[in-house]
Amino acid sequence: LEEIPRPIQNSGNILKQGYLEKRSREPSFFSSEWHKRWCVLTQQNFLYYANEKSKQPKGSFPIERYQARLDPQLRKDSRKKCCFQLLCPGKRSYEFTAPSPAEAQDWVEQIQFLLRDLSSLTIPCDEDEEDEEEEEEQLSRDRDSSDSMNNSQNSTLNPEEPEPESEDIYEVVPGELPNSQ
């Protein structure tokens, strides 16, 4: 059996998708500056299609190293709070308008979350839980240690308790006598 290629919209690695208006790079005198596009954010790419049934994207780019931010100055009309930008030094920037300010915020947050994940050098695993337990034990020991120092003045009241070992923090320099008081 021949496998039929599936459109990206049906693949399992989609993080967000929906209609956005994309600003055209070179608006012509005869067409609008903003075009409605079906946009798809995957774990590695941002793709945009003519509509949600399109099989071939009109454009795509790897999302890594891009930054996402809200930008109300992209438009002067009532939809200015729905705008966001995708920027990458040395690469083309992309400008979008979402259906609502909340939707624009969600796109930006999803992209920022993905970018933080992509730039992370650590891979979470079960060892993280062990590290947290070790940190908690260390904090507990530190607290116990500071408590024992605070209680060392009271050690004469309980002669059964051994005197805590104290480290001398002063250095004796040869040729000098320690001050006697």
UniProtKB/TrEMBL annotation:
Subcellular location: Cell membrane; Cytoplasm; Nucleus
PROSITE patterns membership: PH_DOMAIN
InterPro entries in UniProt: PH-like_dom_sf (IPR011993), PH_domain (IPR001849), SKAP_fam (IPR037781)
An example Gene Ontology CC term for this record: nucleus
rRNA-binding found in the keyword field: no
Ranges of Acidic residues composition bias in the record: 125-137, 160-170
Ranges where the PH domain occurs: 13-116
Protein name as annotated: SKAP1 protein
Source organism per UniProt: Zosterops hypoxanthus
Gene that produces this protein: Skap1
